[in-house]
Design brief:
Blueprint lengths: L3 E5 L23 H12 L3 E6 L4 H12 L4 E6 L21 H5 L10 E5 L2 E2 L2 H13 L5 E8 L10 E8 L5 E13 L2 E6 L2 E5 L4 E9 L2 H16 L10 H11 L3 E7 L4 E2 L6 H13 L10
Parallel strand pairs: 1-2, 1-4, 2-3, 6-12
Antiparallel strand pairs: 4-11, 5-13, 6-11, 7-8, 7-11, 8-9, 9-10
């Protein structure tokens, strides 16, 4: 069975001000998701599953079904606030969904093959999808997962400091830990992160996580157990979020699984604020001009 692409597209996009998941960035209004799916099909994925809010489903179908019909199987699953499905009877107030690791649980009934998880609003590049397919087909098992490691120097913003999950990798190329650096920025031709008011250097090729993970379906049971514990422990914290790196951290620490850090030299870019849009549009325009993508992505 070909691997599945699971796309996290249920975010609120509060900082962007509108649904950036379906905003147009390409020369013919293509979304960032379009380019990810195009690369995924080319790399060898067999299905794409959109994780969305239920009220968005008709909107997503009207945008993506005409393009993808006959090219790749599609499905839609919904991230919601229902905790009874996890055996939690207690009412817990939330201002927004529980986070990315909670989101992937939405796919547990439709994803039966090795799969990868990506953000809807990030551009990853073909090389990353091809390397992930190769890993999922050849190396993945229930105790061996993966994460794509981007060179930090190819993930920075022209608009200020960014937060990056810096990967500490062991001698075997596996993830030892992810350290969240909240202020990473270029300065005088070098890269630094700031902590407690001090600057520390980072080498250009330091691997960082951009939320591109590879799993087998066994991760669903593990994630559900961890989520129940997290939800009950944080029932009085309505902004607490259950992120995918928490799964990785737990499995690495307990020795239940390894995460191979698969390096890519692709340049990453994404959109968080409205001000990012012209930069993303220009980046895609350059990829079209150099022949990476056709001007009309879906013929």
């Amino acid at each position: 069975m070909k691997p599945t692409l699971l796309i996290l597209a249920a975010g609120m996009a509060s900082r962007y001000g509108s649904m950036k998941q379906i905003d147009g960035f390409g020369p013919n209004g293509e979304t960032i998701i379009d380019y990810s799916i195009y690369d995924a099909i080319k790399a060898g994925f067999g299905k794409v599953v959109f994780i969305i809010k239920e009220e968005f489903v008709e909107n997503f179908k009207s945008i993506f079904e005409p393009k993808l019909n006959g090219k790749i199987e599609t499905d839609y699953v919904f991230q919601n606030f229902d905790l009874k499905q996890f055996g939690i009877e207690e009412e817990i107030y939330r201002e927004k969904p529980w986070g990315t690791a909670h989101a992937i649980l939405s796919g547990r009934k439709v994803v039966k093959e090795p799969f990868c998880v990506i953000n809807a609003d990030d551009y990853y590049g073909f090389d990353a999808f091809k390397k992930m397919v190769d890993f999922l087909n050849d190396e993945a098992n229930d105790s061996n997962f993966s994460i794509i490691g981007y060179e930090v120097g190819k993930t920075l913003s022209e608009f200020g400091a960014v937060s990056r999950g810096v990967c500490k990798v062991d001698d075997a190329g596996n993830l030892d830990e992810i350290i969240e650096r909240t202020k990473v920025y270029p300065k005088d031709g070098k890269i630094y992160y700031e902590e407690d008011g001090e600057e520390f250097p980072l080498s250009f090729d330091t691997p960082v996580s951009m939320n591109f993970w590879g799993f087998t379906p066994s991760v669903f049971n593990i994630t559900e157990k961890l989520f129940v514990e997290f939800a009950l422990a944080n029932k009085d914290k309505p902004k607490a979020e259950f992120f995918i790196p928490l799964i990785g951290e737990n499995l690495v620490k307990t020795g239940e699984a390894t995460f191979k850090v698969v390096p890519t030299s692709n340049k990453w870019f994404g959109v968080t604020y409205k001000e990012d849009k012209p930069y993303v549009q220009d980046s895609i325009d350059q990829l079209v001009k150099n022949g990476t993508y056709p001007e009309k992505l879906w013929n």
